[in-house]
Records
---
Amino acid sequence: MPKTLTSDFLIIGSGIAGLSLALKASRHGTVRLITKRQLSESATDYAQGGLAAVFSRDDSVEDHVRDTLNCGAGLSDETVARKVVTEAPPAFKT
Ligand SMILES: Cc1cc2nc3c(=O)[nH]c(=O)nc-3n(C[C@H](O)[C@H](O)[C@H](O)COP(=O)(O)OP(=O)(O)OC[C@H]3O[C@@H](n4cnc5c(N)ncnc54)[C@H](O)[C@@H]3O)c2cc1C
């Protein structure tokens, strides 16, 4: 007999997107989180913590944005890619 579980929020995925949402949603109700395999099996767990930034005079924001969009194969949001690349250097200096 299948068991019925209830909650105010059902979140699918235990990567940073799902976990961030789970934390926020938990302020407003009960949260249930489901994921594909192990909780830690996600791109988030494999991420190296890098941030794209331009420091060399031989490099440019435009090159980084172009490379990011190429690697994203049409799935990247150009506004976000440009914001991250542009705002990364001051973030490193703080
Ligand atoms: C090797 C590697 C290195 C990286 N290094 C960096 C870095 O240095 N800097 C950086 O900014 N980014 C890096 N990234 C990218 C970064 O990890 C991802 O952009 C980010 O973690 C994505 O988070 P997410 O929550 O959207 O997805 P994920 O972390 O992939 O989470 C997706 C979740 O959904 C679950 N799921 C998927 N399908 C289903 C399904 N059908 N049913 C139920 N659950 C499902 C998965 O199990 C997983 O828990 C790296 C990624 C990899 C793989």
Note: Residues 61-93 form one domain.
---
Amino acid sequence: MDLTVEKKLRNLYELQAVDTALDNLKAMMGELPMEVADLEDEIIGLETRLTNIEGEIGQIQDGINAYRTRIKECNQQIDKYKEQLNQVKNNREYDALNKEIEILGLEILQAEKSIKMQQEKLDTQKEILRVTGETLENRRKDLEFKRVELKTIEKENEEEMNRLGGDREKAEKDVDPRLLKAYNRIRKNVINGIAVASILRGSCGGCFARIPPQRQSDIRAHFKIIDCEHCGRILVDVTISGQETIVEVKEEKPATRKRLKLGAKAE
Ligand SMILES: [Zn+2]
């Protein structure tokens, strides 16, 4: 059966509409699992960080305890020397003991200074521990939320995906085999998956290049299949596409995100 050009274009556009809906669904699902994976990585990083900080705090605490023990020992030693002072026999012994007491006194001062420094370090680390712990708690909550969201969307999309899959099969059957080949080839080559573009304010709805007025009226005449001279997409007019194509281009992403306002059937 030989179809009219108009009918061929309608069937082809139908397939494009279903494929675009599928692309959007996949794009939406594609981001959430990534977000969940990113959060999981971040949480592992934060947990490692917490463990490291706790280790550092333990070391500082051990250092402080060692200084305290040493101060105790010094004081005991000083007490002993002071007792010996009462039993000295000459000046030389007396001076020697006092010298020892003085040295131990200096060591105690030094140890107290060190404890003060370590205590400040300890306070800083404890603050870092607190902030890191808070961040970790928040990320865990985020993750829990995102996991629920993902599960819900997966469940919702499963139905939608199956429905669109069925629609696609039906739509593909109606497309002229030669056109289907061209369609598949174009779709592979364009970044936004749009092989059949609508005329959008006198421009190609796929690449936004101006379409010469004569070409525009040829497209409207449905006399033959016409492609965009600039990007090679098959062009249709608004009577085929039903509505104007709205394309959102995000520059920073290689995979262009798009949203097609589709006809009632594909919506
Ligand atoms: Zn174009």
Note: Confidence is low (pLDDT under 50) at residues 245-267.
